[in-house]
Amino acid sequence: MRFVKGHGTENDFVLLPDGADGLDAETVRTLCDRRRGIGADGVLAVVRVAAPTEADPRWFMDYRNADGGVAEMCGNGIRVFARYLVDSGLEEPGDLLVGTRAGVKTVTVPAAGDITVGMGRAERLPDAKVQLGERWWAASGWSMGNPHLVVADPDLDIDTADLSVTPAVDPPAAYPDGVNVELVDATAAAATKASIRMRVHERGVGETRSCGTGACAAAVAVMAARGERASYGVDVPGGRLTVTWRDDGEVLLSGPAVLTYRGEYPNDTPR
Amino acid sequence: MRFVKGHGTENDFVLLPDGADGLDAETVRTLCDRRRGIGADGVLAVVRVAAPTEADPRWFMDYRNADGGVAEMCGNGIRVFARYLVDSGLEEPGDLLVGTRAGVKTVTVPAAGDITVGMGRAERLPDAKVQLGERWWAASGWSMGNPHLVVADPDLDIDTADLSVTPAVDPPAAYPDGVNVELVDATAAAATKASIRMRVHERGVGETRSCGTGACAAAVAVMAARGERASYGVDVPGGRLTVTWRDDGEVLLSGPAVLTYRGEYPNDTPR
């Protein structure tokens, strides 16, 4: 099968231009294996819809996690998906509609540069405490379709905080299915009001280089505490994202998408 | 540039069929980056020698580590290199001579299956003690061109031993430039005399899935302690290798080589 490899803020994907036919969980796990396969955080299969409608637009992003399971949406992956559609000539630059398991998303794709995705509305979830090392920190709960707890305490040194283990949550019953935890340094933004820094522990995965919904939750939490709607830069270990919280409640996520290389898997032809 | 990705017992490589021209350290680091590049432990450039001689045979393996530095030899990489030469039709199955920075190596490549490399002679190095967690263990020193300390104590549970930090060595002056450390379970082999299990901490890298010279050192250390020359299976986390210590002192390393996929980097052409 032919594939294209790409990443958004170092969240990386194997994109399959020819769809998801025959794509079982074992194949996904093999493709995503970083030594025995191609290596990625997930697989993006490009599915062309036979009879597009408003509720079922021309392209469907069939996203699978590296563990082989289907997943609803990926804010970094959909930018790679959209960059492929435009760079390959399948779509013109501009606004695209992309179907996902979390509904239809609007993606704005310039000819080059950052891509913007409408991520839906942020919703409040219960606040809770999060344990990092020996100490407990207050965290605000937000949903971007998935749950997040955001710690934005100026006393927390996010660079030295230990995210090697899943942070404990108190009360545990607040998030029985687990929760993503974002550690935010908003001290620079307190002066510039333009950017925050973030590290993230993704539920079931561990610390990652980037998390699109996590960046949205972190920026929204800081904006909400300040009583504003604005655009914030969010620096994650894998690069820079931009989160815009519109007056109508919609959250927009902007960031880079890089198509790294293309290939044929497996290596069945002599070179 | 076109490339082929491959691995030997999960020690993985980007193979460059068109040689090493213009291959600087920064390019190697980018190619080996597992998210922003292709991802590998190292790069194998296929260099065709213009005027081959016995001392400088037709093929030279220009091996670079993921950090961009040149390296002398790689017992897992040279199998991938040789598998490529045969599968691509550049050489017939059989014995090949391959030049490396550690001299000319003889590689035996069947049409399919395990590939065998002459790794040179094992030489004794000073014995020392190695620290794992709180406890110190006696280790025997062996050189396979690079230095190794092999712990083969039946009291050591190699599955639970901590290799997350570089093991301390006593006396430190015995290995001032560092040393590879192999933890060996030879208890099964005590019954079958046919196989050992091994984990390895590679100098400057950390624990890895496989180490060709480490497998040789580990098997030789156990054979030497038993006063025999034989063939041992060596099970490493990434698969199974076979080490043969010949009566003439030469150590042969056999193992799999898989060409996983092929590609073009960067992704400069629409698909």
Query: What fold name goes in the CATH topology slot of the largest domain in chain A?
Result: Diaminopimelate Epimerase, Chain A, domain 1
Number of strands of chain A: 18
User: Could you state the order of secondary-structure elements of chain A as H and E?
Assistant: EEHEEHEEEEEEEEHEEHEEEE
Radius of gyration of chain A: 19 Å
Largest sheet of chain A: 18 strands, mixed
The amount of beta strand of chain A, in percent, is 35-45%
Can you name the CATH architecture of the largest domain in chain A? Roll
Number of domains of chain A: 2
State the end-to-end distance of chain A.
16 Å
- Name of the top-level CATH class of the largest domain in chain A: Alpha Beta
SS-based class of chain A? mainly beta
Could you state the oligomeric state of the chains shown?
homodimer
Question: Pair with the most extensive interface?
Answer: A-B, 34 and 34 residues
The CATH superfamily of the largest domain in chain A is Diaminopimelate Epimerase, Chain A, domain 1
